[in-house]
Amino acid sequence: xxxxxxxxxxxxxxxxxxxxxxxxxxxxxxxxxxxHGLRWxxxxxxxxxxxxxxxxxxxxxxxxxxEAKYKAVESIARLSGRPVPHPGxxxxxxxxxxxxxAVRGAERPTSETPLMHAPFWNMxxxxxxxxxxxxxxxxxxxxxxxAWEAVFFSSHFTGASRTDKYMEWGSSYQELLEHALxxxxxxxxxxxxxxxxxxxxxxx
Length: 204
Fold this sequence. Notes:
The structure is a single chain. 19% of the residues lie in helices and 27% in strands. By secondary structure, it is an alpha+beta fold. It has helices spanning 23-34, 145-154, 173-183, 198-202, and strands spanning 2-3, 6-9, 12-15, 19-20, 45-48, 53-57, 60-63, 65-66, 83-86, 88-94, 97-103, 114-117, 156-157, 193-197. The protein has a six-stranded antiparallel β-sheet. It has a two-stranded antiparallel ribbon with strand order 1-4.
């Protein structure tokens, strides 16, 4: 891309010789097209883009809603609406898509933090949530992070959407949640790595 001076002459305006854009020129062009690019953040925001945002939710408890679609897991319905411990979570939202991963420990993730598979139903092996009939928020900003999380946790978990092994747990999912309830925290040792760090997932 080149910049050209504009000369005001008697016969009209003419373009002068082109020159390569300087760093200052490029920054000025970006600011003109996109504004200054500043967006309000939050303490848990990890990364932002023009149409995407990644943030962290510390370990805690959250009610889960269950509507088991298989008779073999119908008994999990008794846990529906009950606050259950969850590990630290990493959310990644982009238009029409929400992905969720887990992280071990209670520290804010860094670019080198290994991502774990999220220990929830209704998840694909890519980390993406099975949307079903839920509607995602229209905006992707720090101010709407809670709204994106609400969509995830207020959806009805109907069953595993994947057939591969994504947790180091030999019993049922219901027994895992009951075990977490007894402990008062989610047992991080059952989390399985995705073999990607946060930076690798975000492409950084």
